[in-house]
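Exercise: predict the fold of this chain.
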Amino acid sequence: MDNRSVGIFDSGLGGLTAFSALRERLPDENLIYFGDSGRAPYGGRPEEQLRRMARQNLAFMQQQDVKAVLVACGTLSSIARDILAESSIKAVGVIDATVLAASRLAGSAPIGIIATAASIRSGTFEARMRELCPKNRILPVACPDFVPLIEGGHIQADDPAVREAVQRYLQPIKEAGAGTLILGCTHYGILAQAITDYLGPEVELVEASRCAAEDIADYLEGYHLCGSDGREEFYTSGSAGEFSALGSLLTGRPVDARHIPPQEA
């Protein structure tokens, strides 16, 4: 047993989907969450800037003396894989567990991948998917408007702005007849119902947040590192009030976030 916390960080609210999945799997685990809303969205930023931000976020978690970190951000998981691998503490990204889960569900139909512009540009999700499913058609699509919509409070499936964006981005995936769709940004799980409403229930959604949460839970259980107190701490570089209100709505539990100033990227 190790009662130090597990750290989780993301560009904002999206990683709360991973937080909820990990809390469901390990209800007594101690968790520290950092949502970098003051610098969101990440997806349009240059690669070197994103790599600096990955190091900064890891350093913040190291200052909290966490025992492991879930990098609940598809963008940083794509751009900074080497930085995560070299971390002095165990750092789990969202790529490997997600593509493995998708490969197990995939038949012969095309596989869609939606993620931030930076993630899609990096080609990481696509390359790993092609390794595991070389005979499938892979359809990577960047959805840059999703994160700003969610961070702005547009999270309901029947929200006209959400429905318009989902149709605009996912139309080529629907027309191609994809059977599986990777939600490669943890924010996107918040729009899962809207996505299913548009694509139809026969399309299997693979959420990066849930896959990564299962991955780090397996690690903690395998090395007997689980905690027993169930403590929770939330930090954001954006508005603590707005983050707390939306975070409580998304998780269905009280979220009382503390503000920390955003670092210069």
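Check your answer against the key: The mean pLDDT is 97.
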